[in-house]
């Protein structure tokens, strides 16, 4: 399917324009005598002169042969990107040949901006690319995609001022025989002063803890909700991916999204249901009629064994049309079932931009705990 790309291209264009790096205006076309006119605006940005340098770092064979990948042994770490700034990563592509069936959960992607000691990206690779249950499936969105051949793509722009470093750690017990990488980026004379740092954080509850009694009927404060991300500072939320593995029959998605912005006591944004947050409706079609779907900003491209124990869903929702801004504090949450009355397994990744180039992430769960396993309730 063909999807619009104005969002990510528009983001880069605005970034470059703000720093004076986009195309310099062309000279005005000749006007009728005595009729001044503005510089023409009919040309798209790609048809105008650019003021950045396009570069790529990849796993190509340094000897000139055809072994264009890295081997990552069990317990090993592979640096996949290191560059001096200012610059912007514009695209990441990986494809992996690994012995472990759950390598999407075992391999951990980390990124550090400007030599900060804490990573701003820390998530299993599968979850980063929206494959939150550790298996591949084909889909395309505005910022993330998985293509035939198990190729993983990311189009989130990632600015850095001084230095950027990305690594992949194999926390599994078996070797990764071939890890292929292509990371496209640009170096620029300078970044806009208000450029923010990209962040991606993994979280899970496997299983979520179900509420009982009165707490399972009314939930106004969201204290027991599933948390996608909690951070302090200034920035804006871009969205989330979520994998759900059902531990019981029934519909898992009656939970409302509740987003706390600059106020820890009560949510500012309240939604009407999980399937509504992911911009589907009516249980995505129900027990016998659910259909996977995927669009630029939202989707549920994986639906297997709907509304049954062992049912599997992968969903995504991006806020590219209206990123959720925060000045001091953000906590993005969602009920797991109505008023948190269900105990399914949730695995998620949240994506946001923030002024400070790192935040305090919760400890990454051990690899055994990240593996999706049905835990009947």
List the helices and strands and how they pair.
Blueprint: H1 6-18, E1 53-58, E2 70-72, E3 77-84, E4 87-98, H2 103-106, E5 107-113, E6 121-124, H3 125-128, E7 139-140, E8 144-147, E9 151-154, E10 158-160, E11 163-170, E12 176-187, E13 197-205, E14 226-232, E15 235-245, E16 257-261, E17 269-270, H4 274-277, E18 293-294, E19 298-304, E20 312-318, E21 324-326, E22 329-334, E23 345-354, H5 367-370
Describe what you observe in this structure.
This protein has about 375 residues and is mainly beta. It has one domain (about 50-370): Sandwich (Jelly Rolls). It has 5 helices and 23 strands. The chain has helices at about 5-20, 105, 125-130, 275, 365-370, and strands spanning about 55-60, 70, 75-85, 85-100, 105-115, 120-125, 140, 145, 150-155, 160, 165-170, 175-185, 195-205, 225-230, 235-245, 255-260, 270, 295, 300-305, 310-320, 325, 330-335, 345-355. The strands form 3 sheets. Strands 3, 5, 6, 11, 13, 15, 18, 19, 20, 21 and 23 form an 11-stranded mixed beta sheet that branches. Strands 1, 2, 4, 7, 8, 9, 10 and 12 form an 8-stranded antiparallel beta sheet that branches. A 4-stranded antiparallel beta sheet has the order 14-22-16-17, with no helix packed on it. β7 (about 140) and β8 (about 145) form a beta hairpin. The two termini are about 40 Å apart. About 45% of the residues are buried. Mean pLDDT is about 90; it is low at about 1-5 and about 15-35.
